[in-house]
Write a structure and sequence with these properties.
With 235 residues, the protein is an all-alpha fold.
């Protein structure tokens, strides 16, 4: 009888133990869900402050801080916080926030692109290039033209013209009617001493928006190219 009684008692205790574990797990899950909801609410409120006219950066900053404190796994809140730091020109803090967002979601290409911008403004071009390249690697990234453009401008500043052109032409593959990129490519070819290759890009720009200031400038460039060709032909 004692053995049976002890066995039953052990079974009851084991059952109670597992029931306790189950309750603890449920409470932890409920607490987690509550934290996630709080964080999401703070994040949305911060975004609302940014959409005000003018944007209320300080109030947004406070809400984003609350969001990351409530849930340290909210990658979107860290991304938003990085934006605020970037706007405040606190680039080191922006870099940390964007890196945290990426550590939580390695495929968060928007964060990688803005990490590149933060590195660039902090004067860390080599790291900026790597961040932009990481953003482009994600084939599901909806706007890869952004890091391609950013890379093109860095390479242009470094006078790596061929590499800059390659990046800017990637932008044109995605946005063939981007007047800014058409003009920039034409300018690079002229700077390289290859005006003939600039011609089709200026012509496309004029066709795209003939009344714009950019088109008028492009027309002047084309006339200069033509005059130079005429002079060379007379020699």
């Amino acid at each position: 009888m004692n053995m049976r009684h002890n066995l039953n008692l052990s079974i009851v205790r084991i059952g109670a133990f597992f029931l306790l574990l189950l309750c603890v797990g449920c409470n932890a899950k409920e607490g987690r869900i509550k934290k996630e909801k709080e964080s999401t609410s703070y994040h949305k409120l911060g975004l609302a402050h940014l959409s005000e006219t003018p944007p209320n950066i300080q109030k947004a900053y406070v809400e984003f801080l609350k969001a990351v404190e409530a849930d340290r796994r909210n990658h979107e809140a860290f991304y938003a916080l990085g934006h605020v730091y970037f706007q405040r020109q606190e680039y080191t803090k922006a870099i940390e926030a964007f890196k945290k967002a990426l550590s939580l979601d390695p495929n968060y290409s928007e964060a990688a692109n803005y990490l590149g911008k933060a590195f660039e403004f902090a004067g860390r071009e080599a790291e900026a290039i790597l961040a932009y390249q990481e953003a482009i690697k994600n084939l599901q990234y909806a706007t890869p033209q952004l890091p391609h453009w950013n890379l093109g401008l860095i390479y242009l500043k470094q006078k790596k013209y061929d590499t800059a052109l390659a990046e800017l032409k990637e932008v044109l593959q995605i946005e063939p009617q981007n007047a800014v990129v058409l003009r920039q490519i034409g300018e690079i070819y002229i700077e390289m001493g290859r005006p003939q290759e600039a011609r089709p890009f200026f012509e496309r720009l004029i066709t795209l928006s003939p009344e714009s200031d950019s088109a008028k400038e492009a027309q002047i460039k084309l006339e200069t190219i033509a005059n130079n060709e005429g002079k060379n032909g007379d020699l």
